[in-house]
Amino acid sequence: MQVSTISSLCLFGQLLLVSCCFTRCAFEKDEQRAMDSVDVYHSSWDDGLENYRKTWPSRFRLGKLADQQFIAKWDIDVRPDGKGLPKEGSGTVKAGSKLYHQKCASCHGINGYEGPYDKLVTDSTGKNTIGNYWPYATTIFDYVRRAMPFNAPGSLSDQEVYDITAYLLYLNKIIEANEVINAKTLPKIEMPARKRYVIDDRKGGPEIK
Amino acid sequence: MKNSVRTSWWRERALWIVVLIVLAASIGFASYFYIQTKNQIIEPDVPSQIFVDPSKVQGRSTAEVGYRSAFEKPKKLISTTSARTPLQDLYGTITPADLHFERHHAGIPEIDPEKHELLIHGLLEKPIRLTLADLKRYPSVSRICFIECSGNFRYGKREMTPQEVCGLTSQSEWTGVLLSTILRDLGVKSSAKWFLAEGADGALMARSVPLQEALPEAIIAYGQNGEAIRPQQGYPMRLVIPGFEGNTQIKWLRRIELTDKPVMTREETSKYTEKIKDGKIRMFSLVMDARSIITYPAYPKKIEKGWQEIRGIAWSGRGKVKQVLVSTDNGEHWHEAHIQGPVLEKAHTAFRLMWNWDGKPTRILSKVIDETGYVQPTYNELVKARETKGGYHFNPVVGWDIERNGAAYLAKIEEIN
After folding, report:
1. Fewer CB within 10 Å: N-end or C-end of chain B?
2. Complex ipTM, two decimals?
3. Which CATH architecture has domain B77-277?
4. What is the per-residue DSSP string for A94-143?
Protein backbone atom coordinates (compact mmCIF):
# COMPACT_ATOMS: atom_id res chain seq x y z
CA MET A 1 0.00 0.00 0.00
CA GLN A 2 2.72 2.41 1.10
CA VAL A 3 4.97 1.38 -1.75
CA SER A 4 2.26 1.96 -4.30
CA THR A 5 1.47 5.42 -2.81
CA ILE A 6 5.11 6.39 -2.99
CA SER A 7 5.49 5.06 -6.51
CA SER A 8 2.32 6.81 -7.68
CA LEU A 9 3.55 10.05 -6.10
CA CYS A 10 6.86 9.57 -7.92
CA LEU A 11 5.01 8.92 -11.15
CA PHE A 12 2.88 12.04 -10.63
CA GLY A 13 6.01 14.06 -9.93
CA GLN A 14 7.70 12.78 -13.03
CA LEU A 15 4.64 13.46 -15.12
CA LEU A 16 4.52 17.01 -13.76
CA LEU A 17 8.18 17.53 -14.59
CA VAL A 18 7.82 16.09 -18.06
CA SER A 19 4.71 18.18 -18.80
CA CYS A 20 6.50 21.31 -17.58
CA CYS A 21 9.42 20.60 -19.89
CA PHE A 22 6.99 19.91 -22.69
CA THR A 23 5.15 23.19 -22.28
CA ARG A 24 8.38 25.08 -22.10
CA CYS A 25 9.76 23.35 -25.17
CA ALA A 26 6.49 23.83 -26.99
CA PHE A 27 6.53 27.53 -26.19
CA GLU A 28 10.13 27.93 -27.27
CA LYS A 29 9.59 25.90 -30.39
CA ASP A 30 6.57 27.92 -31.40
CA GLU A 31 8.40 31.16 -30.80
CA GLN A 32 11.44 29.84 -32.58
CA ARG A 33 9.32 29.04 -35.60
CA ALA A 34 7.84 32.50 -35.69
CA MET A 35 11.29 34.06 -35.61
CA ASP A 36 13.00 31.55 -37.90
CA SER A 37 10.98 32.63 -40.88
CA VAL A 38 12.44 36.12 -40.69
CA ASP A 39 15.90 35.17 -39.52
CA VAL A 40 16.89 33.43 -42.73
CA TYR A 41 18.15 36.56 -44.34
CA HIS A 42 21.60 37.55 -45.26
CA SER A 43 23.01 40.60 -46.89
CA SER A 44 26.38 42.28 -47.11
CA TRP A 45 25.76 44.63 -44.19
CA ASP A 46 25.31 41.86 -41.61
CA ASP A 47 28.47 39.90 -42.48
CA GLY A 48 29.45 37.84 -39.47
CA LEU A 49 26.28 38.68 -37.55
CA GLU A 50 25.09 35.08 -37.64
CA ASN A 51 28.26 33.89 -35.93
CA TYR A 52 28.08 36.69 -33.42
CA ARG A 53 24.45 35.75 -32.71
CA LYS A 54 25.57 32.24 -31.73
CA THR A 55 27.49 33.72 -28.81
CA TRP A 56 24.45 35.53 -27.40
CA PRO A 57 22.57 34.17 -24.41
CA SER A 58 19.18 32.66 -25.21
CA ARG A 59 17.46 35.27 -23.01
CA PHE A 60 18.48 38.83 -22.19
CA ARG A 61 15.86 39.47 -19.51
CA LEU A 62 16.19 43.22 -19.79
CA GLY A 63 13.65 45.90 -18.95
CA LYS A 64 10.70 45.48 -16.69
CA LEU A 65 7.41 43.77 -17.26
CA ALA A 66 4.69 46.19 -18.37
CA ASP A 67 1.48 45.71 -16.40
CA GLN A 68 -1.97 46.14 -17.87
CA GLN A 69 -2.50 49.44 -16.10
CA PHE A 70 0.59 50.97 -17.70
CA ILE A 71 -0.25 49.55 -21.12
CA ALA A 72 -3.82 50.87 -20.92
CA LYS A 73 -2.51 54.39 -20.30
CA TRP A 74 -0.42 54.41 -23.50
CA ASP A 75 -2.38 52.08 -25.75
CA ILE A 76 -4.42 54.73 -27.52
CA ASP A 77 -4.69 53.55 -31.11
CA VAL A 78 -8.10 53.00 -32.64
CA ARG A 79 -8.48 50.46 -35.46
CA PRO A 80 -10.94 50.07 -38.33
CA ASP A 81 -12.80 47.28 -36.50
CA GLY A 82 -13.37 49.63 -33.57
CA LYS A 83 -10.76 48.10 -31.29
CA GLY A 84 -9.46 50.81 -29.01
CA LEU A 85 -12.56 53.02 -29.13
CA PRO A 86 -13.70 54.14 -25.66
CA LYS A 87 -16.84 52.26 -24.59
CA GLU A 88 -18.11 55.36 -22.83
CA GLY A 89 -19.29 58.38 -24.76
CA SER A 90 -21.37 59.13 -27.80
CA GLY A 91 -20.83 62.05 -30.13
CA THR A 92 -23.46 64.32 -31.61
CA VAL A 93 -23.28 66.67 -34.58
CA LYS A 94 -24.68 69.52 -32.49
CA ALA A 95 -22.07 69.29 -29.72
CA GLY A 96 -19.38 68.69 -32.33
CA SER A 97 -20.33 71.85 -34.20
CA LYS A 98 -19.86 73.96 -31.08
CA LEU A 99 -16.48 72.39 -30.31
CA TYR A 100 -15.34 72.62 -33.92
CA HIS A 101 -15.96 76.35 -34.05
CA GLN A 102 -14.14 76.86 -30.76
CA LYS A 103 -11.11 74.66 -31.35
CA CYS A 104 -10.73 73.74 -35.01
CA ALA A 105 -12.16 76.45 -37.27
CA SER A 106 -9.25 78.87 -36.84
CA CYS A 107 -6.97 76.45 -38.72
CA HIS A 108 -9.40 74.53 -40.93
CA GLY A 109 -12.00 77.19 -41.74
CA ILE A 110 -15.59 77.84 -40.65
CA ASN A 111 -16.87 75.23 -43.11
CA GLY A 112 -13.84 72.96 -42.98
CA TYR A 113 -12.36 73.90 -46.35
CA GLU A 114 -11.20 77.52 -46.10
CA GLY A 115 -7.91 76.70 -44.40
CA PRO A 116 -5.32 78.05 -43.88
CA TYR A 117 -4.35 74.46 -42.98
CA ASP A 118 -5.57 71.07 -44.22
CA LYS A 119 -8.97 70.93 -45.90
CA LEU A 120 -11.24 68.55 -44.01
CA VAL A 121 -14.35 68.97 -46.09
CA THR A 122 -14.69 68.46 -49.84
CA ASP A 123 -15.03 71.60 -51.96
CA SER A 124 -14.78 72.45 -55.64
CA THR A 125 -10.96 72.34 -55.70
CA GLY A 126 -10.94 68.52 -55.53
CA LYS A 127 -8.18 68.57 -52.90
CA ASN A 128 -7.90 65.56 -50.59
CA THR A 129 -10.36 65.66 -47.69
CA ILE A 130 -11.93 63.31 -45.17
CA GLY A 131 -14.93 62.94 -47.47
CA ASN A 132 -13.11 62.17 -50.69
CA TYR A 133 -9.86 60.57 -49.50
CA TRP A 134 -9.94 59.04 -46.01
CA PRO A 135 -10.65 55.27 -46.21
CA TYR A 136 -11.63 54.65 -42.56
CA ALA A 137 -13.84 56.69 -40.23
CA THR A 138 -12.03 55.35 -37.16
CA THR A 139 -8.90 57.19 -38.28
CA ILE A 140 -10.62 60.51 -37.53
CA PHE A 141 -11.07 59.53 -33.89
CA ASP A 142 -7.54 58.11 -33.64
CA TYR A 143 -5.90 61.17 -35.18
CA VAL A 144 -7.92 63.90 -33.45
CA ARG A 145 -7.33 62.31 -30.05
CA ARG A 146 -3.64 61.80 -30.81
CA ALA A 147 -2.61 65.11 -32.28
CA MET A 148 -5.30 67.77 -32.28
CA PRO A 149 -5.83 70.62 -31.73
CA PHE A 150 -2.41 71.60 -33.02
CA ASN A 151 -1.74 74.11 -30.24
CA ALA A 152 -2.84 71.71 -27.46
CA PRO A 153 -2.43 68.11 -28.64
CA GLY A 154 -4.02 65.48 -26.44
CA SER A 155 -6.20 68.01 -24.60
CA LEU A 156 -9.60 66.75 -25.80
CA SER A 157 -11.69 64.34 -23.75
CA ASP A 158 -12.93 61.15 -25.39
CA GLN A 159 -16.44 62.62 -25.41
CA GLU A 160 -15.17 65.73 -27.22
CA VAL A 161 -13.35 63.58 -29.78
CA TYR A 162 -16.56 61.63 -30.43
CA ASP A 163 -18.45 64.92 -30.91
CA ILE A 164 -15.88 66.36 -33.31
CA THR A 165 -15.75 63.08 -35.25
CA ALA A 166 -19.54 63.21 -35.64
CA TYR A 167 -19.42 66.81 -36.86
CA LEU A 168 -16.64 66.14 -39.41
CA LEU A 169 -18.56 63.16 -40.80
CA TYR A 170 -21.69 65.32 -40.99
CA LEU A 171 -19.86 68.18 -42.77
CA ASN A 172 -18.66 65.65 -45.34
CA LYS A 173 -22.26 64.43 -45.82
CA ILE A 174 -21.39 60.94 -44.58
CA ILE A 175 -23.86 60.94 -41.66
CA GLU A 176 -27.14 62.76 -41.05
CA ALA A 177 -27.52 65.55 -38.47
CA ASN A 178 -29.32 63.29 -35.99
CA GLU A 179 -26.91 60.33 -36.11
CA VAL A 180 -24.70 59.58 -33.12
CA ILE A 181 -21.11 58.37 -33.17
CA ASN A 182 -19.92 55.86 -30.60
CA ALA A 183 -17.92 52.64 -30.27
CA LYS A 184 -20.69 50.73 -32.05
CA THR A 185 -21.58 53.08 -34.90
CA LEU A 186 -18.18 54.50 -35.92
CA PRO A 187 -16.58 51.25 -37.22
CA LYS A 188 -19.68 50.57 -39.33
CA ILE A 189 -19.41 53.76 -41.35
CA GLU A 190 -18.29 53.16 -44.91
CA MET A 191 -16.09 55.91 -46.23
CA PRO A 192 -16.56 56.89 -49.89
CA ALA A 193 -12.86 56.53 -50.75
CA ARG A 194 -12.43 53.07 -49.20
CA LYS A 195 -13.01 51.18 -52.44
CA ARG A 196 -10.27 53.11 -54.23
CA TYR A 197 -7.49 51.85 -51.96
CA VAL A 198 -5.05 49.16 -53.09
CA ILE A 199 -1.97 47.77 -51.36
CA ASP A 200 1.38 48.56 -52.95
CA ASP A 201 2.54 45.89 -55.38
CA ARG A 202 5.83 47.37 -56.59
CA LYS A 203 8.52 44.73 -56.38
CA GLY A 204 11.56 46.21 -58.04
CA GLY A 205 12.70 44.86 -61.37
CA PRO A 206 12.16 46.59 -64.69
CA GLU A 207 8.48 47.45 -64.24
CA ILE A 208 7.59 51.08 -63.53
CA LYS A 209 4.53 51.34 -61.29
CA MET B 1 55.15 149.58 -0.52
CA LYS B 2 52.34 149.33 -2.96
CA ASN B 3 54.74 147.78 -5.49
CA SER B 4 56.07 145.27 -3.04
CA VAL B 5 52.50 144.25 -2.18
CA ARG B 6 51.73 143.61 -5.85
CA THR B 7 54.97 141.60 -6.31
CA SER B 8 54.25 139.48 -3.30
CA TRP B 9 50.68 138.84 -4.62
CA TRP B 10 52.15 137.42 -7.82
CA ARG B 11 54.83 135.58 -6.00
CA GLU B 12 52.33 134.01 -3.63
CA ARG B 13 50.11 132.77 -6.47
CA ALA B 14 52.79 132.00 -9.12
CA LEU B 15 52.84 128.32 -8.28
CA TRP B 16 49.04 128.06 -8.53
CA ILE B 17 48.97 129.86 -11.84
CA VAL B 18 51.63 127.57 -13.35
CA VAL B 19 49.76 124.48 -12.09
CA LEU B 20 46.50 125.77 -13.61
CA ILE B 21 48.12 126.52 -16.98
CA VAL B 22 49.76 123.08 -17.12
CA LEU B 23 46.46 121.39 -16.13
CA ALA B 24 44.47 123.31 -18.76
CA ALA B 25 47.04 122.49 -21.41
CA SER B 26 47.08 118.80 -20.59
CA ILE B 27 43.26 118.59 -20.61
CA GLY B 28 43.30 120.37 -23.96
CA PHE B 29 45.87 118.01 -25.43
CA ALA B 30 44.17 114.96 -23.99
CA SER B 31 40.80 115.86 -25.46
CA TYR B 32 42.42 116.79 -28.77
CA PHE B 33 44.11 113.37 -29.04
CA TYR B 34 41.00 111.61 -27.81
CA ILE B 35 38.89 113.20 -30.53
CA GLN B 36 41.62 112.57 -33.05
CA THR B 37 41.93 108.84 -32.31
CA LYS B 38 38.20 108.36 -32.06
CA ASN B 39 37.45 109.76 -35.48
CA GLN B 40 40.64 108.63 -37.07
CA ILE B 41 40.36 106.54 -40.22
CA ILE B 42 43.51 104.65 -41.02
CA GLU B 43 44.15 104.77 -44.72
CA PRO B 44 46.90 102.28 -45.37
CA ASP B 45 48.75 102.34 -48.67
CA VAL B 46 48.20 98.53 -49.03
CA PRO B 47 44.84 96.67 -49.23
CA SER B 48 43.25 97.18 -45.85
CA GLN B 49 42.42 93.48 -45.16
CA ILE B 50 44.49 92.20 -42.30
CA PHE B 51 46.23 89.03 -43.38
CA VAL B 52 47.83 86.82 -40.83
CA ASP B 53 50.12 84.19 -42.22
CA PRO B 54 48.94 81.06 -40.32
CA SER B 55 52.43 79.61 -40.50
CA LYS B 56 53.86 82.57 -38.59
CA VAL B 57 51.55 82.65 -35.55
CA GLN B 58 50.23 80.24 -32.98
CA GLY B 59 46.81 78.88 -33.93
CA ARG B 60 43.72 78.56 -31.77
CA SER B 61 43.82 76.33 -28.74
CA THR B 62 41.97 73.05 -28.55
CA ALA B 63 38.23 73.05 -27.89
CA GLU B 64 35.96 70.47 -26.29
CA VAL B 65 33.65 70.52 -29.28
CA GLY B 66 34.84 71.12 -32.83
CA TYR B 67 33.56 73.66 -35.28
CA ARG B 68 33.35 74.24 -39.01
CA SER B 69 35.78 76.50 -40.79
CA ALA B 70 34.48 80.05 -40.77
CA PHE B 71 34.75 79.89 -44.56
CA GLU B 72 32.29 76.99 -44.92
CA LYS B 73 28.63 77.66 -44.30
CA PRO B 74 26.49 74.71 -45.44
CA LYS B 75 22.91 75.24 -44.36
CA LYS B 76 19.66 73.33 -44.29
CA LEU B 77 16.81 74.94 -46.14
CA ILE B 78 14.02 75.22 -43.63
CA SER B 79 10.25 75.50 -43.54
CA THR B 80 8.10 75.29 -40.42
CA THR B 81 7.89 71.49 -40.58
CA SER B 82 10.93 70.43 -42.57
CA ALA B 83 14.59 71.09 -43.26
CA ARG B 84 16.39 69.98 -46.41
CA THR B 85 19.97 68.67 -46.66
CA PRO B 86 22.33 70.80 -48.81
CA LEU B 87 23.26 67.91 -51.14
CA GLN B 88 25.28 70.25 -53.38
CA ASP B 89 27.60 71.19 -50.50
CA LEU B 90 28.47 67.66 -49.36
CA TYR B 91 31.30 65.31 -50.29
CA GLY B 92 31.09 61.53 -50.26
CA THR B 93 27.97 59.93 -48.85
CA ILE B 94 27.71 60.53 -45.10
CA THR B 95 25.53 63.46 -44.08
CA PRO B 96 26.89 65.44 -41.13
CA ALA B 97 24.35 64.92 -38.32
CA ASP B 98 23.55 68.63 -38.07
CA LEU B 99 22.73 68.74 -41.79
CA HIS B 100 20.49 65.64 -41.80
CA PHE B 101 17.08 66.46 -43.24
CA GLU B 102 14.16 66.95 -40.88
CA ARG B 103 10.45 66.42 -41.15
CA HIS B 104 8.26 66.61 -38.12
CA HIS B 105 4.55 66.89 -37.45
CA ALA B 106 4.54 68.65 -34.10
CA GLY B 107 7.99 70.14 -33.69
CA ILE B 108 11.09 68.69 -32.04
CA PRO B 109 10.35 67.39 -28.54
CA GLU B 110 12.87 67.86 -25.77
CA ILE B 111 13.20 64.49 -24.08
CA ASP B 112 15.05 63.64 -20.88
CA PRO B 113 16.30 60.09 -21.48
CA GLU B 114 15.91 59.33 -17.77
CA LYS B 115 12.19 59.89 -18.12
CA HIS B 116 11.74 58.19 -21.47
CA GLU B 117 10.56 54.61 -21.86
CA LEU B 118 9.84 52.30 -24.75
CA LEU B 119 6.81 50.07 -24.28
CA ILE B 120 6.68 46.89 -26.38
CA HIS B 121 3.37 45.05 -26.14
CA GLY B 122 0.50 43.56 -28.14
CA LEU B 123 0.54 40.05 -29.58
CA LEU B 124 3.38 38.71 -27.45
CA GLU B 125 3.73 36.80 -24.20
CA LYS B 126 5.78 39.30 -22.24
CA PRO B 127 5.10 43.02 -22.64
CA ILE B 128 8.05 45.10 -21.46
CA ARG B 129 9.18 48.64 -20.72
CA LEU B 130 12.72 49.52 -21.73
CA THR B 131 14.82 52.51 -20.75
CA LEU B 132 17.67 53.85 -22.90
CA ALA B 133 20.10 52.17 -20.50
CA ASP B 134 18.30 48.84 -20.99
CA LEU B 135 18.45 49.26 -24.75
CA LYS B 136 22.21 49.82 -24.65
CA ARG B 137 22.75 46.49 -22.86
CA TYR B 138 21.50 44.45 -25.82
CA PRO B 139 24.02 43.34 -28.47
CA SER B 140 24.28 46.22 -30.92
CA VAL B 141 24.58 46.65 -34.68
CA SER B 142 25.67 49.56 -36.88
CA ARG B 143 24.33 50.19 -40.33
CA ILE B 144 25.08 52.83 -42.93
CA CYS B 145 21.94 53.61 -44.89
CA PHE B 146 19.93 56.48 -46.29
CA ILE B 147 16.66 57.76 -44.91
CA GLU B 148 14.48 59.51 -47.46
CA CYS B 149 11.11 61.17 -47.14
CA SER B 150 8.75 59.68 -49.73
CA GLY B 151 7.52 63.18 -50.62
CA ASN B 152 10.90 64.19 -51.97
CA PHE B 153 10.52 65.68 -55.42
CA ARG B 154 10.11 69.34 -56.29
CA TYR B 155 10.36 71.06 -59.63
CA GLY B 156 8.81 73.94 -61.51
CA LYS B 157 11.54 76.53 -62.05
CA ARG B 158 15.06 76.60 -63.46
CA GLU B 159 16.68 78.16 -60.43
CA MET B 160 16.54 75.15 -58.12
CA THR B 161 19.40 73.49 -56.26
CA PRO B 162 19.71 69.72 -55.62
CA GLN B 163 18.71 70.61 -52.05
CA GLU B 164 15.43 72.06 -53.29
CA VAL B 165 14.76 69.25 -55.76
CA CYS B 166 15.34 66.30 -53.40
CA GLY B 167 17.01 67.45 -50.18
CA LEU B 168 14.80 65.23 -48.02
CA THR B 169 17.31 62.39 -48.14
CA SER B 170 20.34 61.95 -45.91
CA GLN B 171 22.70 59.20 -44.86
CA SER B 172 24.11 58.23 -41.49
CA GLU B 173 25.68 55.35 -39.70
CA TRP B 174 22.95 54.27 -37.27
CA THR B 175 23.77 52.25 -34.18
CA GLY B 176 21.29 50.45 -31.99
CA VAL B 177 19.69 47.10 -31.39
CA LEU B 178 17.87 45.00 -33.94
CA LEU B 179 14.15 44.85 -33.21
CA SER B 180 14.38 41.09 -33.77
CA THR B 181 16.91 40.82 -30.93
CA ILE B 182 14.47 42.36 -28.46
CA LEU B 183 11.45 40.45 -29.75
CA ARG B 184 13.31 37.14 -29.40
CA ASP B 185 12.85 37.45 -25.64
CA LEU B 186 9.20 38.33 -25.64
CA GLY B 187 7.39 35.32 -27.10
CA VAL B 188 5.94 36.79 -30.26
CA LYS B 189 2.65 35.13 -31.18
CA SER B 190 2.27 33.72 -34.65
CA SER B 191 -0.80 35.94 -35.16
CA ALA B 192 1.45 39.03 -35.06
CA LYS B 193 1.76 40.29 -38.64
CA TRP B 194 2.22 44.03 -38.18
CA PHE B 195 3.49 46.44 -35.58
CA LEU B 196 2.51 49.96 -34.74
CA ALA B 197 5.42 52.28 -33.98
CA GLU B 198 4.56 55.45 -32.09
CA GLY B 199 6.59 58.52 -31.17
CA ALA B 200 6.55 60.64 -28.02
CA ASP B 201 6.15 63.94 -29.90
CA GLY B 202 3.13 66.23 -29.82
CA ALA B 203 1.61 64.36 -32.76
CA LEU B 204 2.20 60.92 -31.19
CA MET B 205 3.21 60.10 -34.77
CA ALA B 206 2.32 56.50 -35.50
CA ARG B 207 2.77 54.11 -38.40
CA SER B 208 1.87 50.46 -39.00
CA VAL B 209 4.71 48.37 -40.43
CA PRO B 210 4.52 44.79 -41.73
CA LEU B 211 6.55 42.63 -39.35
CA GLN B 212 7.87 40.12 -41.87
CA GLU B 213 9.28 42.77 -44.23
CA ALA B 214 10.75 45.03 -41.58
CA LEU B 215 12.03 42.58 -38.99
CA PRO B 216 15.29 41.40 -40.60
CA GLU B 217 16.68 44.92 -40.70
CA ALA B 218 14.66 47.16 -38.36
CA ILE B 219 16.87 48.81 -35.76
CA ILE B 220 15.92 50.72 -32.65
CA ALA B 221 18.73 53.21 -32.94
CA TYR B 222 20.30 55.45 -30.31
CA GLY B 223 23.49 56.39 -32.15
CA GLN B 224 24.04 58.45 -35.29
CA ASN B 225 27.45 58.93 -36.88
CA GLY B 226 29.19 57.99 -33.65
CA GLU B 227 27.24 60.19 -31.24
CA ALA B 228 23.85 60.07 -29.57
CA ILE B 229 21.04 60.67 -32.05
CA ARG B 230 20.29 64.39 -32.25
CA PRO B 231 16.92 65.73 -31.03
CA GLN B 232 15.91 66.52 -34.62
CA GLN B 233 16.51 62.88 -35.53
CA GLY B 234 14.62 61.31 -32.65
CA TYR B 235 16.66 61.54 -29.44
CA PRO B 236 16.87 59.37 -27.41
CA MET B 237 15.73 56.53 -29.72
CA ARG B 238 14.17 56.05 -33.12
CA LEU B 239 13.19 53.32 -35.51
CA VAL B 240 15.44 52.83 -38.55
CA ILE B 241 14.17 50.53 -41.31
CA PRO B 242 16.73 50.63 -44.15
CA GLY B 243 15.11 51.25 -47.53
CA PHE B 244 11.67 52.16 -46.14
CA GLU B 245 10.09 55.58 -46.56
CA GLY B 246 11.21 58.01 -43.87
CA ASN B 247 7.80 58.42 -42.28
CA THR B 248 7.78 54.80 -41.04
CA GLN B 249 11.05 55.30 -39.17
CA ILE B 250 9.38 56.79 -36.12
CA LYS B 251 11.49 59.25 -34.14
CA TRP B 252 11.30 59.73 -30.33
CA LEU B 253 10.03 56.14 -30.28
CA ARG B 254 7.98 55.32 -27.18
CA ARG B 255 5.71 52.41 -28.12
CA ILE B 256 5.72 49.34 -30.33
CA GLU B 257 2.56 47.28 -30.45
CA LEU B 258 2.41 43.96 -32.29
CA THR B 259 -0.90 43.62 -34.12
CA ASP B 260 -2.61 41.32 -36.57
CA LYS B 261 -3.63 44.12 -38.96
CA PRO B 262 -2.55 47.67 -39.67
CA VAL B 263 -4.07 50.34 -37.43
CA MET B 264 -4.75 52.63 -40.40
CA THR B 265 -3.44 55.80 -38.80
CA ARG B 266 -3.78 59.14 -40.55
CA GLU B 267 -0.17 58.91 -41.78
CA GLU B 268 -0.81 55.71 -43.73
CA THR B 269 -4.20 56.69 -45.16
CA SER B 270 -4.76 60.41 -45.67
CA LYS B 271 -1.00 61.01 -46.06
CA TYR B 272 1.82 58.89 -47.50
CA THR B 273 -0.53 57.27 -50.01
CA GLU B 274 -0.53 58.17 -53.69
CA LYS B 275 -3.06 58.38 -56.47
CA ILE B 276 -2.25 55.92 -59.23
CA LYS B 277 -3.91 54.90 -62.49
CA ASP B 278 -7.58 53.95 -62.82
CA GLY B 279 -8.48 56.27 -59.95
CA LYS B 280 -6.86 54.00 -57.38
CA ILE B 281 -4.99 55.10 -54.28
CA ARG B 282 -1.92 53.09 -53.34
CA MET B 283 -1.19 52.50 -49.67
CA PHE B 284 1.74 51.02 -47.75
CA SER B 285 4.16 51.96 -50.54
CA LEU B 286 6.95 51.39 -48.09
CA VAL B 287 10.10 50.81 -50.10
CA MET B 288 11.93 53.68 -51.76
CA ASP B 289 12.54 53.13 -55.48
CA ALA B 290 15.98 53.75 -56.97
CA ARG B 291 17.03 57.30 -57.64
CA SER B 292 20.02 59.46 -58.58
CA ILE B 293 20.93 63.13 -58.89
CA ILE B 294 23.96 65.00 -60.19
CA THR B 295 25.05 67.33 -57.39
CA TYR B 296 27.88 68.93 -59.39
CA PRO B 297 27.63 70.76 -61.69
CA ALA B 298 24.21 71.92 -60.56
CA TYR B 299 22.45 75.22 -59.91
CA PRO B 300 23.76 77.65 -58.68
CA LYS B 301 27.27 76.54 -59.76
CA LYS B 302 28.99 77.73 -62.90
CA ILE B 303 31.65 75.70 -64.72
CA GLU B 304 34.52 76.55 -67.03
CA LYS B 305 35.36 75.01 -70.36
CA GLY B 306 37.53 71.89 -70.08
CA TRP B 307 37.65 68.86 -67.82
CA GLN B 308 34.96 68.54 -65.17
CA GLU B 309 34.21 65.81 -62.70
CA ILE B 310 30.48 65.22 -62.77
CA ARG B 311 29.51 64.10 -59.27
CA GLY B 312 26.38 62.79 -57.72
CA ILE B 313 24.67 60.26 -55.50
CA ALA B 314 22.49 57.26 -56.35
CA TRP B 315 20.51 54.99 -54.05
CA SER B 316 17.85 52.29 -53.92
CA GLY B 317 15.63 51.11 -51.09
CA ARG B 318 15.66 47.63 -52.60
CA GLY B 319 19.36 46.89 -52.37
CA LYS B 320 22.58 47.94 -54.02
CA VAL B 321 23.14 50.42 -56.79
CA LYS B 322 24.34 48.37 -59.75
CA GLN B 323 25.08 51.00 -62.33
CA VAL B 324 24.79 54.73 -62.86
CA LEU B 325 24.54 56.09 -66.38
CA VAL B 326 25.38 59.70 -67.16
CA SER B 327 24.59 61.57 -70.36
CA THR B 328 26.26 64.83 -71.32
CA ASP B 329 24.24 65.30 -74.52
CA ASN B 330 20.64 65.28 -73.34
CA GLY B 331 20.25 61.51 -73.37
CA GLU B 332 21.65 60.71 -76.82
CA HIS B 333 24.61 58.81 -75.42
CA TRP B 334 24.97 57.29 -71.96
CA HIS B 335 28.29 56.67 -70.21
CA GLU B 336 28.81 54.36 -67.29
CA ALA B 337 29.86 56.41 -64.29
CA HIS B 338 32.48 55.26 -61.81
CA ILE B 339 30.79 54.06 -58.64
CA GLN B 340 32.62 54.50 -55.35
CA GLY B 341 32.99 51.22 -53.50
CA PRO B 342 32.32 49.52 -51.26
CA VAL B 343 28.76 49.71 -52.52
CA LEU B 344 26.39 49.30 -49.59
CA GLU B 345 22.81 48.12 -49.66
CA LYS B 346 20.11 50.75 -49.33
CA ALA B 347 22.75 53.44 -49.13
CA HIS B 348 23.68 56.63 -50.93
CA THR B 349 26.40 55.66 -53.38
CA ALA B 350 28.75 58.23 -54.89
CA PHE B 351 29.18 58.27 -58.67
CA ARG B 352 31.64 60.24 -60.83
CA LEU B 353 32.35 60.83 -64.48
CA MET B 354 35.14 62.89 -66.05
CA TRP B 355 33.79 65.15 -68.80
CA ASN B 356 35.60 67.50 -71.12
CA TRP B 357 33.10 70.30 -71.67
CA ASP B 358 33.57 71.96 -75.06
CA GLY B 359 31.79 75.14 -74.00
CA LYS B 360 28.62 74.43 -76.00
CA PRO B 361 25.24 74.55 -74.26
CA THR B 362 24.06 71.07 -73.34
CA ARG B 363 22.07 69.05 -70.84
CA ILE B 364 23.54 66.56 -68.38
CA LEU B 365 21.46 63.71 -66.92
CA SER B 366 21.92 60.73 -64.63
CA LYS B 367 19.95 57.52 -64.14
CA VAL B 368 20.49 54.62 -61.81
CA ILE B 369 19.91 50.91 -62.24
CA ASP B 370 19.64 48.92 -59.02
CA GLU B 371 20.44 45.27 -58.37
CA THR B 372 16.83 44.22 -59.02
CA GLY B 373 17.12 45.59 -62.57
CA TYR B 374 14.94 48.63 -61.86
CA VAL B 375 15.86 51.56 -64.10
CA GLN B 376 15.16 55.03 -62.74
CA PRO B 377 12.24 56.30 -64.85
CA THR B 378 11.75 59.64 -66.51
CA TYR B 379 9.01 61.98 -65.36
CA ASN B 380 6.99 61.15 -68.47
CA GLU B 381 7.25 57.42 -67.80
CA LEU B 382 6.04 57.92 -64.24
CA VAL B 383 3.15 60.13 -65.34
CA LYS B 384 2.13 57.50 -67.88
CA ALA B 385 2.39 54.59 -65.43
CA ARG B 386 0.52 56.34 -62.61
CA GLU B 387 -1.67 58.81 -64.48
CA THR B 388 -0.66 61.50 -61.99
CA LYS B 389 1.80 64.36 -62.19
CA GLY B 390 3.42 63.99 -58.82
CA GLY B 391 2.79 62.79 -55.30
CA TYR B 392 4.69 60.48 -53.02
CA HIS B 393 7.38 58.17 -54.40
CA PHE B 394 8.13 60.32 -57.45
CA ASN B 395 11.73 59.56 -58.36
CA PRO B 396 12.28 60.77 -61.93
CA VAL B 397 15.53 61.34 -63.81
CA VAL B 398 16.58 64.96 -63.33
CA GLY B 399 19.33 66.92 -65.00
CA TRP B 400 20.96 70.28 -65.51
CA ASP B 401 21.09 72.60 -68.52
CA ILE B 402 24.60 73.96 -68.95
CA GLU B 403 24.45 77.35 -70.68
CA ARG B 404 27.12 78.93 -72.87
CA ASN B 405 28.52 80.85 -69.88
CA GLY B 406 28.83 77.62 -67.88
CA ALA B 407 25.87 78.30 -65.59
CA ALA B 408 23.81 75.24 -64.60
CA TYR B 409 20.00 75.34 -64.35
CA LEU B 410 17.48 72.61 -63.53
CA ALA B 411 16.35 71.02 -66.78
CA LYS B 412 12.66 71.15 -67.58
CA ILE B 413 11.39 67.84 -66.27
CA GLU B 414 8.81 67.26 -69.02
CA GLU B 415 11.52 67.59 -71.70
CA ILE B 416 13.65 64.72 -70.38
CA ASN B 417 13.17 61.56 -72.39
Report:
1. N
2. 0.85
3. Alpha-Beta Complex (3.90)
4. HHHHHHHHHHTHHHH-TTSSS-SS---S--TT----HHHH-SBTHHHHHH
